[in-house]
Design goal:
This protein is an all-alpha fold. It contains 20 helices and no strands. The longest helix is centred in the C-terminal third of the chain and has 34 residues.
């Protein structure tokens, strides 16, 4: 019993560290600054997508019995299974999330200590070292629980809480008037939901669930029900810690405006806040937090992407794929943090609705008997609005179609119009399932 408890705690800490990367640090404090007096409403929305969805996804994957994301998405159709899985892995891996870990680590943990030419040109050198270390640690995934769950995560949590406790001892100011996007409680909650997309955790949870399930199985647990229970325990611990850290970081951001003014990015908010609270020592504490958070996430993403693409293509070996994705992330990271964040938003507006729909279908699978018609119709209807959301966010004018959505689709202007479409698709799928059952009984 003691060994079992120790294992799920270690796995839960590993999962927390894998989740808690670049976006988890910078977005809550930035949101807190903008939300001001409505920060608690914004945090509520943020936790729905930044905490609730990752937990539901990990639970859904364990509950469904699927070995990985491709198997889960293939319940819609095998071709869709490949399409959606590759899309998620590329978004959460080398195209967006993995290079973001390196650029955030540089902007917060390294650049403030540099001057002159090094401050402007030090990114390539740091990124080469950062992704070199990430590759080295990812190349031996069997040691990941021990390295991350038992060593790096406790250090990360300790460093985070040193900064947060100091913000309670030395408050930076009071909550101010919220910006327009957070101007009312409901608006703040909806905007918090959209802000939670930026953490990428609902997508990452599809990938990290594979690591968690394998880690549980490696402890000797083989019964599907016990595996699901252990995954649930580890996932609950991980997202519970995430929620606590988000609330405290958002509070710190909301209080920081009086002391440091409104800032463009969460990276700047964290840097100036640490300097205000601790001076030069605060910069060092923050550097430790950021390096540990970003490195642990990079390790997990490189490992998962390498495992998936080796299996999909059956080309080369695991370590070669790790090297490939580390180099790919290095190349994308050269564009800088602002470009990566800007490019991510349209992609997330497209991918997230599809991810949420799949999570819901996996959880409800036994209720509708796993009927493919329900999977296909729900996903197809969601796909239409998700694609429109992504195109509109990217600045594409949809003309008459876009105007129709704005005028007649509920919640479309809030980026949530896909919910109604998904529900209609689900109803159509259930109707088709019923028709098929009647035909079979005749």
């Amino acid at each position: 019993m003691t060994q079992s408890k120790s294992q799920y705690v270690a796995i839960g800490l590993m999962l927390f560290a894998l989740f808690f990367g670049a976006g988890n640090l910078i977005f809550p404090v930035s949101m807190g600054q903008s939300a001001g007096e409505n920060v608690w409403w914004a945090v509520l929305g943020f936790c729905l997508t930044g905490v609730g969805m990752p937990l539901l996804c990990v639970v859904a994957m364990g509950y469904s019995g699927c070995r990985d994301l491709q198997e889960a998405a293939s319940r819609v159709h095998p071709i869709y299974g490949i399409f959606f899985t590759v899309l998620v892995y590329m978004a959460i891996g080398p195209c967006l999330a993995t290079p973001r870990t390196g650029t955030v680590a540089y902007e917060i943990a390294i650049r403030p200590f540099l001057s002159g030419a090094w401050a402007e040109n030090g990114l390539p050198v740091f990124m080469a070292i950062f992704f070199g270390v990430a590759y080295w640690l990812a190349a031996t995934p069997q040691k990941m629980v021990d390295r991350i769950g038992k060593i790096l995560t406790p250090l990360l949590l300790a460093a985070i809480f040193v900064l947060i406790v100091k913000s309670f001892i030395t408050p930076m100011g009071e909550f101010l008037t919220p910006s327009a996007s957070y101007g009312a409680p409901f608006k703040a909650t909806i905007q918090g939901v959209l802000d939670g997309y930026n953490t990428l955790d609902a997508l990452a949870s599809f990938i990290f669930a594979y690591l968690v399930i394998n880690a549980v199985v490696s402890t000797g647990v083989t019964d599907p029900k016990q595996v699901s229970a252990q995954v649930m325990k580890s996932g609950t611990l991980a997202v519970g810690l995430l929620a606590l850290v988000y609330v405290l970081l958002a509070k710190m951001g909301a209080e920081s405006v009086q002391a440091i003014g409104m800032q463009d990015t969460g990276a700047t908010v964290l840097t100036l806040s640490a300097n205000f609270l601790f001076g030069q020592l605060g910069m060092l504490v923050l550097a430790v937090i950021v390096l540990l958070a970003c490195l642990t996430t990079a390790i997990g993403l490189i490992s998962c992407c390498a495992t998936f693409f080796q299996k999909l293509t059956n080309i080369s070996n695991y370590k070669s794929w790790c090297a490939f994705f580390a180099l790919f992330a290095f190349g994308v990271g050269m564009f800088g943090l602002k470009v990566i964040i800007s490019a991510a938003i349209p992609v997330l507006m497209f991918v997230y609705p599809l991810a949420v729909a799949l999570i819901a279908l996996l959880l409800l699978d036994r209720w509708f008997g796993g009927a493919r018609s329900v999977y296909v119709c729900t996903t197809a209807f969601t796909f239409v609005m998700a694609l429109c959301n992504g195109l509109e966010t990217a600045g594409v004018d949809l003309g008459v179609v876009g105007k129709f959505f704005v005028d007649y689709v509920p919640l479309h202007t809030l980026g949530m119009g896909w919910i109604g479409f998904a529900l209609v698709g689900f109803a159509v799928g259930m109707a088709l399932k019923g028709c098929c059952c009647k035909c079979c009984n005749r």
